[in-house]
Structures are given as structure tokens and as C-alpha cells.
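# step 3/5: fold
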Amino acid sequence: MICGKYFSNFLVKQNFTSSKLYLANLTRNSSMTAKSVELNSFSRRKKNNTDIGWILLVLPISAFGLGTWQVRRKIWKENLIQELKSKTKFPALDFPENEKELTNLEYRRIKVVGEFDHSKELYLGPRSCLTDGGAENSNGLFSGSGSTNSGYYVITPFKLSNRPYSILVNRGWVSMKNKNPASRLSGQVAGEIELEGVVRLTESRPQFVTKNVADSRFWAYRDLEAMSKIVDSEPIMIDAVVECSIPGGPIGGQTNISLRNEHVSYIITWYGLAVATGYMWYAKYSHALRSIIK
């Protein structure tokens, strides 16, 4: 009995000791496992951050590429404006025998002989009066189109002397107060005359511009087909050159060659983003980059 009692006590002590050792080992192993997981997680996170850093490098590179593209676009646009301006200065051509040839002559001067029908005047606008086609205002941060004074272009049917039809002539700009023909009697030229004008084609409705109203004398944009039906002419228009200007109006030379050209502002924007995002990338990932190089 005594031996059995001692033996039972011995087993209890052994089990208690084993339990303590097991718990200690379990705690130690758990701690090591947690630490290992934490280290591995940190390692993966560090690696992932580096990978994300390389992906984010696309931002400054793309911004720089877009800035360079805008530089090329600016050069192309300026060359195009200069080309159009040169075309309007070429010597005037005779009115072609085949009127369909006019579709290939936009911005070229042609000579016409005939007589105005002032009773059918149309008005295109509101518009600002252009100087030199507005080209002097097309190369800044924001493109412009000339004077800030508002007025209208006077569109008058012109009966050709050597053709059995009329065409439309944009005689030029008049101010709001001179829109009424009675206020500019000197501009109501009578009889047969010869004039030079720049060929213009019809245009699509520009963005944010109101629709033209049918059967109206006021037009928001050049719709030659609709305008010609109102005055019974051919859908052909020329802009009278500046030499055709008359004191009191209309003022000729209103051919707009100031194409939208805001590429300088785009260049500043994209290169600025390239510098900013490049600096932010370097500040965040330069240490990782140096560690990789080492």
C-alpha cells in the first residue's frame, strides 16, 4: 500500500513536470512561430513595396512622354497656322470654270465680278473683329481670337456677272450699333464691282454653339447649304479681303486662321506632373533602390 502510494505521487509529479515542460515548449514555439510569421510578412511587404514602386514609376515617365508629345503638337500647329496664313496671301485666282474645284481651294483668294443684293443680308455671329486672321493671339497660354468688341459678319448674296447664279460673300465685321444697314449707308455698294475673297467651306456646328434657326437672318455658324436656300444662291462663300473694307463697316479680312492652340499650357502641365511625381517616387523608394544596387 505504501509503495503504491509513493508510486502514485511519483507519477503525479512526473505528469506535472511534463505538463510544465510541454507548456513552456509550446509557448516558446508559438512565440518563435509568431516572430517568424511577422518577419516573413515584413519581408514580403518590403518586397511588395519595391514591386509597387517600379509600377508607380510609370506615372512620371508617362507624364514626361505626354509633355514631349505636346511639344511636337505645338510645332505642328504653328506650322499649320503659318501655312494657312500664307495661303490667304497668295495671288488671287480666277473663279474656276468648274465650281466643284472650290472644295480644294479653301483659304485661297479668288477674283469675282458682280453685284451685291443688299436686300437679302444675313448676319453671322456674334463675332469679334479679327486682326490678321487672329493669328497674333494663337500662340500664348490661352488662344484668343482678336478684339473683345462684339458684332456680326455681314453675309450678302453676290450675283456673278459671268455666271447665271449668285454666291455668298462675307463682306466683313460690323459692330452691334452698325448692324442695321441704315446706319452704314456708305457700305451699301451699288452696281457692278470686282472684289477678291478667300474661299470658305461649310462648317460643322462647333461645341457649345447654339443650333442655327431655320428661316432666320441670324446664324451662329457657317451652314452654307441652309444659308444659300434662304437667299436663293449657290452654297459657295468667300470672305472679302481686308482691302475691301469700307469706313463705317463692314471691315474685311475676317478669315479666321487662329486654330485652337493651347499647347503651351499643356506642356507646362505635363512636364510639371512629371517633375512632381518623379520627386515623390524618388523620396519614397530611393532607399529601396540603393539597397538593391548594393
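# step 4/5: annotate
The first strand starts at residue 93 and ends at 94.
# step 5/5: archive (pending)
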